[in-house]
Please model this.
Amino acid sequence: MLEVVNIHKTYEGQPLLTGVSFAVARGETVCLLGPSGSGKSTLLRIVAGLEEAEEGRVYWEGEDITHVPPHRRRMGMVFQDYALFPHLTVAENVAFGLRMQGWSPQDQRARVREVLERVRLSGFENRRVTDLSGGEQQRVALARALAPRPHVLMLDEPLGALDRALREELLEELRGILRASDVAAIYVTHDQEEAAAVADRILILHGGKIVREGTPFEVWNDPGSLWVARFLGVGNILFGECRPGSGSPALKTPLGVFPLSCPHCHEPGTRIAAILRPSAVEESADGEIRSRVADVLFQREHFRVSLENGLYVFFPRAPQIGETVALRLRAPLQCVGE
Amino acid sequence: MRKIFIPLLLGLLVLTACGPRQPATLTVMTHDSFAASEEVIRAFEQENNVKVTFLASGDTGTALNKAILSKDAPLADVFYGVDNTFLSRALEAGIFEPYASPLLKDIPQEFQLDPESRALPVDYGDVCINYDKAYFAEHNLPIPQRLEDLTRPEYRGLLVVENPATSSPGLAFLLATVAHFGDPGYLDFWRALRENGVVVVNDWETAYYTNFSGSSGKGPQPMVVSYGSSPPAEVIFAEQPLEEAPTASLVGPNMCFRQVEFVGVLKGTKHRDLARKFVDFMLSVRFQEDMPLQMFVFPVNPQAKLPDAFVQYAQIPEQPARLDPALIAANREKWIQAWTETVLR
Amino acid sequence: MANPSPKRRARERAASLLALPATLFLAVFFVLPLARILLYALDGRLLLQADTWERVGRALGFTVYQAALSTLLTLVVGVPLAFLFARYEFPGKRLWRALLAVPFMLPTVVVAAGFNAFLGDRGWLNLTLMRLLGLGAPPVRFTGTLTAILVAHVFYNTTLVVRLLAHALEHLDPHLEQAARMLGADGGKVLRHVTLPLLRPSLLAATALVFLFDFTSFGVILLLGGPTFATLEVEIYVQGMHLLNLPLAALLSVVQLLCTAALSSLYSHLLPRIVTPFSLRPAEANLRAPRRWGEKLFLLSSLALLVALFLVPMTSVPFRSVARLEAARGERGEVRYGLTADYYRELFLNRRSSLFYVPPLAAARNSLAYALATVLLSMALGTPAAIALARRGQVARTLDALFMLPLGASAVTLGLGFLMVFRRAVTSPWLVPLAHTLIALPLVIRTLQPALASIPPRLQEAARVLGASPWRAWWTVEWPILWRASLAAATFAFTVSLGEFGATLLLARPEYPTLPVAIYRFLSQPGGLNYGQAMAMTTILMAFTTGGILLIERLRPPASTEF
Model:
């Protein structure tokens, strides 16, 4: 198991990481999710040993490896720009780590063949990496990182430079490859869909700390804070006055008064925020929310409808722009902390 | 391509070079060491309504090479700076046309090495060994009186000379030893000098400023092959006023070699009269008196008065070494070659 | 690879047209004069004389030997320094970098004086050692040794290695080395398997240039090596200018030129095999302050080397320009100095009202004007030529080798050729920047070419796909990369011109003397004042060069527009 404890790091005088701790088990894939500039990549580089933290420790299977140089950590890294060696062929790139570890030429060849097969690049051995497409280069990078059988595999926005279709295809492959090996993987991304697709567990980094941790399902359904809710874009955020009611409390907003999911108001009358998920709303002739349609966007399974009152909802049909629609709440608004 | 390009370029250059072309332009090709006072040249220009342009063309050998290579379409009207070691080559190449200047009658016969007056003597200078007076005084060393003295053990490692293959004073000193000891006797002398630790460098600048102890360089050798005019130059260009020259020349018999420099009208000049006037001017008292302090050479015209510093600090050898220019031209390469084998290998 | 389509071949032909101006320039100002003088002077009978070949062989042997040794040493010193400048931030870095280029333009006489003041028989190192150890004779022999030649060559040419290599190194994607580290390569293996292989084009360019400069070395051999050493160029000078043996000088020039041609075609043959396009990164991505003790040790020892090998010999010049020997001249004991500003004051006085007096400001102005003209001309000719040469092909390879040739031509011989071809025009001041451009052009092309060759074609295509016109694509994609390399190239052209005195002495007329010419004028006469003024003038030249380089480096584009 990889354990990262209480990492502190400043960047150009500004605190970037202020006490980050987490652990990754063998065979587990953990996603580090956060906006750009949140320090995800730096954290990854600290774990890899490419940068040093001012404070904090890194352990592998209980052994302190904080000061072990990167070339002795047995970790693999896949860079966003792939960082393939342009002067070497595909096979030479993949064999690089094996060569550094002193594998025999036969073993190297066998392992290269095996790994290239795994990433579906058999037959590409003698190609120049500069002649490959983006997706192929990405696969070579993955094969190169996996070839020496690392304990920990780190992927820094590995699909960031690829187009959507290719990304989805590779994502699936990647998940399969990660599942099949018992490597502890850390996957850095700013794309939550990617994170949800690949991660066993998601860590959300914000303000130098991990602000939310859990399975993709847990995090999506309970963001736990207004910031995480906004970052993940789980739904409309409504602000209003909390009013204790019979049974459950309600939120008084300019759009109306809506029931809340939490058991009671902490301090009745104060301003709080709540989530109105688009999926919790449906069109209904006697709906209490009425507004004109401002914009309509086709999104494969449904239409995303923006209303003039600031809300957005999902419709199975495409309303006319300017048309007045009536909406009904199917479930109470979800309370978020702070 | 060349046919179009070069005339075009030349046209451009000519256009930029000649502005309003009132007075004629007289071009004088010289070596880099040529110098003169502004007022002296201006006076000549005014008297003759001419503009004089000087073409500095490298060291003595380079300048002569250029004059020879361009003799079909000469770059200049007058060439100054060929010395007696190169004289025969210049005359053989036929770059000069004869001009028997009326002023030649004032000039001692000993300087008139070309009987056909194609090359006319302008100045002379003696290449002599300079010594650091303080060093000799401090060590109670006697001053060497003859070339032979230099091989004595008390002068071991005290002399720096220039390579005759690369330096003009170096060659002059070699010629002095040839004149004194004869061929091949000079080689025995050099062999002895080599055994006595003579130091050889390639150029006068290094010899004088790096190796010589009497100059500002404060080098290790108190004797250097330089010029008879170097001691006055040390006084004139002293950092602080000096009462006495810090160096002096060894002027024993045949210890110095006399270099004479010549001027001539270049064949193919378009301003023959002006060119001749300029040659006359260079031999005249006015120019001859200006020369010593500009170029640190001696005037060949005996009517020219020497500046005080020269009278006071320069020694003129009574018996300088001399060699026939034709003999020098014929043997220069051979002597240098033999010298190289003897001293350097 | 498939056969190039006709369209592509047409494009390649169009691209090689870009090399036309530079080729014409070379034909008129290099091939023509050189052919003229060689045809005039060469004499077939010489080939039959036995001692001709012995002489040529001896000079050639020593020339190759010292050049190979000097190049090796220059790389040994230059490569670590290139890493230092490309990878680490440290105080005074810009100044150090500019100072490193100063030797490149210092007149040899002055460099010899600088080294002698430090390492000569009566230099302060020997004097100190003699006093400390109670020795009677100087323990360190320097002047007149092979060591002196090697040290001076390293002193002169390290800047070439540092500039060419640091430029490539700065822009290397740091992820490549990090990826290698992650794959188990320690520092040494990263260097051997990743960094150096990627630097091969620049390394090869630097090696070829340094070798050529050492191969044609003249002043250093003459002044520091002394009379026992003679390279081809020295022998050409002696034979041609002192013995007036032009046929032998011409033969030696041909030998020197043939060697240069062989070397440059080897270079252009090797280059395409080792160029690998890789993505460039802004320099800042690779820069950091040294942190680990090993890095700090590296920084300190590099700085010590810079001080000992570069700063000390250089500072002896400005030191002597304000130091006067105290009276009691000729005294053998300790040399004492007094401070003075006399030399600088004297520079501005024409005491003997000489026609040839050079006001220092005029000399500086002339030098600067020539340098600027050289920069403009060599960049204008060199940039399109480098673009044309970056697209490989047989024509490009031949041209490539041709452009290197001026570096191997004897300045002495070429000067005479100029005279024969341009006749009266040889007196024009216009010829000075033209001659300087001949030397600067190969440097400019060598600097631009690796940068251009490493631009992946995909980058261009990507920009084209995004709707950019070819011109716009070039402007937004290639120009920012070129701009950096252009600055390095311009710096070279600038220093070459400021320091070049060979061509200036061969061509210049007294009305437009440059700073190096003025320095020679002072040094050619005896007297403390002349010596001091030469040192003062050199100090001015050094200040100009340093300032000029710092200024050129300030022209860097803001980081955001770079990539």
Summary: Helices of chain A lie at 40-48, 90-100, 105-118, 134-146, 164-180, 192-198, 216-221, 226-232. Chain A is about 25% helix and 35% strand.
